[in-house]
What does this fold into?
Amino acid sequence: MLSINIAPQGDLEKDIRFFELLKACGFTHVGIEFQKCPWLAEDKWPQKVQALRKAIQATGIGLSSAHLHHYPLDIGCSVKYEETEELIARSVQAALKIGAPAFTVHPRSSMDQNFSREVSAKQNKEDFFPILEQAQEHGAKLLFENMPVFPDFPERRYFSSKPEEFAEFIDSFHSTGVGVCWDVGHAHMLLNEDEFGHMKQLGTRIQLIELSNNWIRYDSHLLPSKGDVDWSAFAAAAKEMNYTGSLILDAKPAKVPEIAKAYYTHAYDCMKSIKERIDKA
It folds into this structure.
């Protein structure tokens, strides 16, 4: 399926209009980015989630995933903030309420002194295992996303940016309910490394692929038609992996209402073109 990550407003009429617009542009499914929903911090957040659920039901739009709230990358995994933990818990409850089939999360990294692969893996398992249990009770999967390495700060290591450690971490759960959400934009930021070789190394662990583009230096979340990701090489790798899962666009939203339809139509056309490249590879 071809999907798109969005940040709904939790307003029944506005979300219905937006979902209908996306459907008119070609999209049949959406991913919900709770990280980008400021209303999750409001007292009336349960009512907002209910409005979102009704909008999904009213339009018949499908769900590909829900991106849970997360800590900023540079906040080490030993640090816990009460407000952030509450927002994470609320995003889990919201994802369950709307019936998301997969929960996408950002693994955290040890940042206290030097990067530690072992400490990062241990803390992530402790933090996310309770979420995995909740997801599995409702038939949903927990998908960890590969993190970038910023070219201007290559010494700043983030857990899951290396395929060997990522594969070992995913396998350590011994669960078919745990997998990888492969972020093409993040992988593209790995200088002098085989980004698509990394993707193939993770193989069947990858159960969802997020597409965006950039110019390597920044995680810009551009449409696929911008930036310099080699989409032919991506398609060849996906074909070699026999990848048949969803492709989900993870680009910036249209900022001007007057061009929204043209923007999302072009976004869908980009996604369709990439899917066709995979089929023909």
In short: The CA atoms of residues 4 and 250 lie 6 Å apart.
